[in-house]
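Late entry, S-adenosylmethionine complex.
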Amino acid sequence: MDVDSDRSRKPATAARIYDFFLGGVHNFPADREAAAQVAAMMPTAPAMAKANRAFLRRGVRYLAASGVRQFLDLGSGMPTQGGVHQVAQEVRPDARVVYVDIDPIAVSESLEIIDGNDRATAINGDMRQPRAVLDHPQVRKMLDFDEPVALLLCAVLHFVPDDDQAYGLVEEFRAALAPGSHLLLSHGANEGAEVTVSSTQHDEVQSVYDRRTATPAGGRTRDGVARFFGDATLVDPGIVWVPQWRPEPDDPTDFADDPRLSCIWAGIGRLP
Ligand SMILES: C[S@@+](CC[C@H](N)C(=O)[O-])C[C@H]1O[C@@H](n2cnc3c(N)ncnc32)[C@H](O)[C@@H]1O
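Prediction complete; structure with ligand written out below:
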């Protein structure tokens, strides 16, 4: 079987739909079809993906500059367009990064991208099973949990719509982190439906993920997002629309007029 016909049968995944929105090349026909369905209902979807990835870059740069040397990136997608290892190691060459994703193809593409970098690795894992991720031999080898770690949960918790499961998993990861660790989080906003598309269209966008991928999606309110931070101290400016988190001159400008249209909440907190 040739590679192309094999790929043409792959079902869509959230990782590769996102890659398509970022302008990446790590996606297949089913991903592009699903992305087109989402974009038809929510034309801002590609700009939302880019604004989110720009926040991830700014956040990681901030964390590395603050002295963080270890990064556990859950739901990492593919480290293209300024991946975490690139950004972190530019600031701190000794920074170590573990990428974790539920999509095995995203993981194999990630391993190709980081090939030759002995301070970055990628594993196939489900963040809904924190113990399995934390005990994974590659995670144990790369990260020292006696030292602070930055836990990155960027645009991924909306793929865990069940509240008990989502808050429970974050709690379990947090419990494994040393004092002074950080939580970087971005999350699809429930309030987004009020400012961008009708709530029917919002539901339809969610239904594309429900029907076409193995990871159903659902937004949360700002208060719901704040709950993930628990007793962490939020770094300025707190939980804000994603383009508002410490913007930089070379950021995308799509939502300059109305940051609410990004439909994504973002924040970084320092754990006690
Ligand atoms: C929108 S992408 C975000 C990628 C990256 N974190 C970023 O913000 O640029 C969401 C990623 O989460 C992954 N994902 C969804 N559910 C997951 C789970 N339960 N465990 C691990 N990864 C998951 C998807 O495969 C996808 O790669």
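The longest helix spans residues 45-65. Will revisit in the morning.
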